Amino acid sequence: MTDTPQAELISSFRPQMLKFARLQLQDDAAAEDVVQEAMESALRGVDRFGGRSALKTWLFTIVRHKVIDALRERGRSVQVSSLERDEADMDEAFEALFRENGHWSPAGRPRAWGDPEEALAQRQFWQVFETCLEVLPARTARVFMMREFLGLETDEICTTLQLSISNCNVILHRARAGLRQCLSTGWFAGEGAPC
């Protein structure tokens, strides 16, 4: 990699890119390869970067495409045992949010979020969001990121991770509920601090 200001700036995002790639690929060596390829692509195309988006957004778009390519190249096979995490604690936490009739318990009822558009515009929100994502079990976070960040369809996620559609939907529900709970206490409660 050359020693230019663009190369230094792109390199500064390497730890975040690597963290994302590791979460998705569950393989340190493959994540390193994907990030290296993404950084090389970014350096080759930096002259074409028009600044229509933030540099970080542009870089993560490149990483995202490289991760999707790597997942597809693997033949959509991942060892299920590498994805298993104990989600019993998460189940108990969600059960406490509801009454037996399925309605929200008074303590579990979501708080009003105020103006979400204003919060989304704030950089600190995304730092809290990232922290909340890290609190989720690894498999739950991975499925959420595959759906919401990589934009994979449910059937493709199911094939890649050897999940049933109903299990995938349950995991996505848990991820969204876990993120909502964390954001409600760590951001929208007014503290603006990670959960």
Automatic annotation (TrEMBL):
GO molecular function: DNA binding; sigma factor activity
One of the protein's GO biological processes: DNA-templated transcription initiation
Domain of life per record: Bacteria
Keywords annotated in UniProt: DNA-binding, Sigma factor, Transcription, Transcription regulation
Keyword DNA-binding tagged: yes
Transmembrane intervals: none
Signal peptide boundaries: none
Positions of the RNA polymerase sigma factor 70 region 4 type domain: 129-177
Domain RNA polymerase sigma-70 region, chain residue ranges per copy: 9-76
Similarity remark: Belongs to the sigma-70 factor family. ECF subfamily.
Name by which UniProt lists this protein: Sigma-70 family RNA polymerase sigma factor
